């Protein structure tokens, strides 16, 4: 049975893994796919487009175990979220894949650690740790992501850090 | 594998966690360094999902070089920590041999660190504690484990 390779550059839904010809269903291998996240206009997404494509194309076992590529659902949701909360004078975040197809967005700057864990569409756990106060906030988010916009805004804000005491 | 705690894995036994040098490293401008992301110490959100590990004593009992084992077929860095360090923060450590997964080499020395059901998720403090308890086994040059 020969597998039929399909190529496409834009996907709206999760990729089908089956190709049907007549009464026969073929398994379609992914290995040569390059899944493209729809392009966005923000500086972050222009910078992260290739990274998103890399993450959705990771080989099974990329983590040394049975890690899967970032799911298209998580990637598209994350890309759309970043497009909404982008602030141009804040640098683009790091993107870190989970072994289960999830994705974490993170910044470590301006004495904040911000980690936005995309567990699925509308299933987000976000944490912000303030290194100056050692205070941590964790929020579960499904539809209202305005708190993230505030957090990102704070990354661009000048902060007065406590002066070190001298002898 | 349903999460469980293996009594044959003693608190002082060493477990290995592989770190992908391309995927798990982030820039930390607060500390002027590259470091391992907490995402590398997260549990899978799949049913009964945990955090994959290799059990060092199983590798050694099989007469295999551990550093060679955890750097093939995919080269990764790796860290070691005591099983007890995970248990100390309320996690479970058990065997979970990896076999028959399409595209993945069988790993009879594979185990998992799980959170006590019903929740899979490790808290941020648990992830930071696992990082803090770890030291390099196969070091990724220029990368620190935690701050």
What are its keywords?
heterodimer, A: 167 residues, five-stranded antiparallel beta sheet, 3 helices, 23% helix, globular, B: 147 residues, alpha+beta, six-stranded antiparallel beta sheet, three-stranded mixed beta sheet
What is the topological layout?
The complex is a heterodimer of chains A (167) and B (147).
Chain A lengths: L17 E4 L2 E4 L15 H14 L15 H14 L8 E4 L5 E7 L2 E9 L2 E8 L4 E7 L4 H10 L12
Helix pairs in contact in A: 1-2
Chain B lengths: L13 E6 L5 E4 L4 E4 L14 E5 H6 L4 H4 L7 E6 H6 L2 E5 L14 E6 L8 H9 L2 E4 L4 E2 L3
Short description:
The complex is a heterodimer of chains A (167) and B (147). With 167 residues, chain A is α+β, with helices and mostly antiparallel strands.
Structure, described:
The complex is a heterodimer of chains A (167) and B (147). In chain A, 23% of the residues lie in helices and 26% in strands. Chain A contains 3 helices and 7 strands. Chain A has helices spanning 43-56, 72-85, 146-155; strands spanning 18-21, 24-27, 94-97, 103-109, 112-120, 123-130, 135-141. In chain A, the strands form 2 sheets. Chain A has a 5-stranded antiparallel beta sheet. A two-stranded antiparallel sheet of chain A has the order 1-2. Mean pLDDT of chain A is 80; it is low at 1-33. Helix content of chain B is 17%, strand content 29%. Chain B is an alpha+beta fold. Chain B is globular. The interface between A and B is medium-sized, with 35 and 35 residues.
Task: Indicate the low-confidence ranges of chain A by residue numbers.
Answer: 1-33
Share of β-strand residues of chain B: 25-35%
Number of strands of chain A: 7
Number of helices of chain B: 4
Q: Could you say which overall geometry of chain B the principal axes of the C-alpha atoms support?
A: globular
* Portion of residues within helices of chain B: 10-25%
**Amount of helix of chain A:** 10-25%
What would you call the shape of chain A? globular
Topology order of chain B in helix (H) and strand (E) letters = EEEEHHEHEEHEE
| Main sheet attributes: strand count, strand direction, barrel closure of chain B | 6 strands, antiparallel
Q: Span from first to last CA of chain A? A: 79 Å
Q: Report how far apart the termini of chain B are.
A: 33 Å
Radius of gyration of chain B: 15 Å
Report the count of strand segments of chain B: 9
Going across the biggest sheet of chain B, name each strand in turn: 6-7-4-1-5-8
**Strand content bin of chain A:** 25-35%
Give me the side-by-side strand order of the main sheet of chain A.
Answer: 3-4-5-6-7
């Amino acid at each position: 049975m020969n597998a039929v390779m399909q190529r496409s550059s834009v996907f709206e839904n999760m990729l089908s893994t089956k190709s049907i010809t007549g009464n026969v269903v073929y398994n379609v291998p992914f290995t040569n796919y390059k899944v493209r996240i729809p392009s966005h206009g923000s500086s972050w997404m222009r910078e992260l487009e290739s990274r998103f494509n890399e993450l959705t194309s990771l080989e099974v076992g990329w983590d040394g175990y049975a890690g899967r590529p970032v799911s298209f659902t998580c990637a598209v949701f994350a890309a759309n979220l970043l497009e909404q909360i982008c602030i141009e004078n804040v640098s683009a975040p790091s993107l870190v894949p989970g072994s289960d197809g999830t994705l974490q967005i993170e910044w470590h700057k301006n004495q904040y650690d911000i980690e936005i864990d995309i567990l699925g569409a509308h299933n987000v756990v976000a944490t912000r740790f303030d290194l100056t106060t050692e205070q941590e906030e964790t929020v579960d988010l499904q539809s209202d992501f305005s708190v993230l916009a505030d957090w990102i805004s704070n990354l661009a804000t000048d902060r007065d850090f406590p002066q070190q005491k001298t002898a | 594998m349903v999460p469980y705690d293996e009594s044959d894995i003693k608190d002082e036994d060493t477990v290995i966690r592989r770190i992908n040098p391309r995927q798990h490293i982030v820039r930390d401008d607060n500390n002027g360094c590259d470091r391992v992301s907490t995402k590398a110490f997260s549990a899978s959100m799949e049913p009964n999902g945990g955090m994959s590990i290799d059990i060092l004593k199983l590798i050694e009992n099989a007469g295999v070089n551990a550093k060679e084992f955890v750097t093939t077929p995919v080269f990764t860095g790796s860290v070691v920590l005591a099983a007890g360090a995970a248990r100390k923060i309320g996690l479970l450590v058990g065997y979970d041999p990896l076999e028959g997964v399409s595209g993945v080499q069988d790993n009879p020395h594979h185990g998992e660190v799980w959170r006590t059901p019903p929740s899979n998720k490790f808290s941020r403090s648990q992830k930071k504690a696992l990082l803090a308890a770890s030291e390099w086994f196969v070091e990724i040059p220029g990368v620190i484990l935690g701050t």
